[in-house]
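Co-fold these.
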Amino acid sequence: MHRVVPYTSVNSPSRQHPVRRDPEESRVSKLPSEPQQQAPVFQATGRSGGPTSTLAAPTARRPARDPSANGHGVRPATPRHRHAVVLLSVLTAIWLAAQLAAGLAMNVHTWPVAGFPMFSEKRPVVSERRIEARRRSGRLVAVNPGDFGLTDLQFLNYQRSMVSETGMVKPKAVDRLGRLAAIWNRRHRDDPAVAMILTHIVHPLPYGTPARSPQIVRWNAS
Amino acid sequence: MTLVRRWQAFWFPAVPVRRLAAFRIVMTAYALFDVWLVSGFISRYSLVDDEFYKALVVLRPLPRLTPSLTSAVYAVLVISLALALVGCFTRPALWIAAPLYLWWWGTYYSFGAVHHGRIAVVVALFVLAVGPSGRAYSVDSWLTRRRAARLGALSPTADQRDELAGWALRVMMVLVVAAYVLAAYAKLWVTGPGWVRGGALEAVMIKNGTPAAMLLVRHIWLVYGMAALTLLLESTAWLMFFRGRIRDAYVVAVVLFHIGTLLVLNISFLGLVLAYLAFYDLEVGVDRIGAWLRQLSRAKATPREIPLR
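Predicted complex below.
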């Protein structure tokens, strides 16, 4: 036995075509006194051309509406609603200006309104770093990000404040290494570090080029 | 049309509130998953030494919290996100969740490594709190309908439209496009078109050292090709504003791009990828899924006919 499937048409200003619909789907409102909205779904999916075509401009005095809207579902604009729109307009303009400023300045410290400068710098080399601690007992141990509760990237960025990516040792690098040793020693009081060595090896790109001789920053407990 | 009207027209189109509600479900589900299952380790950062703490601008006025307070924030954040997901006290829940989510990840990023994947989620939580995101697909809307039915009053229609819903989605669209275009700008400003051969991609591939990256990095022209595609994709993100096949093609390309960054660089931008949904008529998808489920349940309920000979 064949089931009869009702066909409805969409009264859209942009396009009209028959639409196959499940009878239950068209029951948008349960109130019999209200006009039934037939297939707003298919209006919304219309692929008319042009930028953001489903989101049409509002008229001069009314709020913006979809071209497919027949006015039935649009929320009436109360004075409070209009004030909210004005306030949001101002806030949106401020956010947009701040976002553009942060983006153009490539500032990430203003997150979540930040620039996106990730991987934008030219990188002629790849560096390899390791930090080792000479303990009072004479043992040499590797110092890991986990010793400080940091991730690899966080610890790497801290090390970049001592030796740059290209191998340039920065001023106060030894002081920083000393501070690192002090923090490390707070967790290893039983056998603290008496010396800490940061070794930085530079590998020129492309991949496979032999490494340059390493840079070494050394801190010794006085 | 004056400039002000054009501005209003762009930022405040009336769209179905169901679209924003569906977007709320996706973004809060991701935020809940992100906080509950991925970022629990951040609570330990309250124990990390001040030497490593360089507070982001937004966190500078705030003191660092003790471990017990951090745990309390975590609990409140998880509960508020769960409430926002189901749409129970949606707006208050989102107003609690949005600043706490910002604080949560801002704290993590204050230790020397800022990531961009969660900007879209933070902004989404804020705009969802402002917009009428709880007016559909929520416990709140169900209660409203039930109350209206009990009082014999008119209940809100299912296809309500609201310009604040349009605003919320518009902010997300602009943010997504801006993220890519500003990333392309940074590359071109800092290094220029030579960025493609500048070694940045190669360096990060070696640094992250995934098996796929170490395999690909041996073929330098392949790396240059990937870098060129990255720059092309980022600089053409504004194509997302064009509805139809152009947008669909762009979204497919960008999703593949992010799958690539996850496999090769081990960098996830899932929050940003989910924000693409702001460009789509999500209520259509919900209707289709609903119709499919109804069809499925009907098919299961109907007993199979046995042909008679």
